[in-house]
Amino acid sequence: MGYSRYDFTQYFIDNSEDYNKTGRASRQIHYEVVSYQCNGLEKLFRRHHEMNYEIYYDENRNVIQINFQKTNGKSDWFVNIFEFSDKYYDAIEFGGHKLQLKVHHGWGEMYKSVKKTIRDKWKQLYDENPGAETEIVGWSLGSGQAVLCCQDLNYNFGVKPHLITFGSVRPFASSKKERSLLKEYLSTVSEECYNFANINDIVTYMPPFRQFTTINRVEIGQDQKRTVGRLLRPKVYHTTYDCDELYREVD
Fold this sequence. Notes:
Layout: H1 8-15, E1 32-36, H2 40-44, E2 49-58, E3 63-68, H3 74-82, E4 86-94, E5 97-104, H4 105-112, H5 115-128, E6 133-139, H6 141-157, E7 162-166, E8 172-173, H7 179-186, E9 192-198, E10 212-213, E11 217-220, H8 228-231, H9 234-237
Helix pairs in contact: 3-4, 4-6
């Protein structure tokens, strides 16, 4: 049985928990909740973050799907906004060079809290269903987690997931010298990748620094000119990825 992909709008509707109440959700996502702390100060003040994810096997399509939840609560906003320092993540050999991966600190710490569990669960499902395709999906904060997960599974198992995200942030960082090498490496970690970014969605420019990037940013909504006024309306442009018209020009 060949790989069968849903319409892009369906992935957003399901992964956003039908945020816009379209009534078109195909299933309810059941997230696993993982609590974690980033540093000693958080332990001292009893402050913690939560990572919410789901991994399951879709028998009808022979697909292992991993979903990451959007920003959910004040703790997640702290991760998004106040922890912009990039941090060493993994060192790899690529193209005859040593590439030191860096990521947005808050998002990197969030994914690290579950990466071993996700690796173990993915491997168990794949061993039970050899040949299954892997999909990784996320919206907003979840998009950054999905991108990190894609690289992680590829690096550790050689699998090339189908990566589909919406309102996609830019979790990876590099020096000016390594920027081209990083982009070349990231282009190899997925079977196909659609990190959708409405050009008027301000979230998709986060972090707003040149050294940050993602895998295959796909700009949509180009029929509307990008303006400051639209960029300041995230409740409109960050939440309407369930419009079929946005994907008409996308292969």
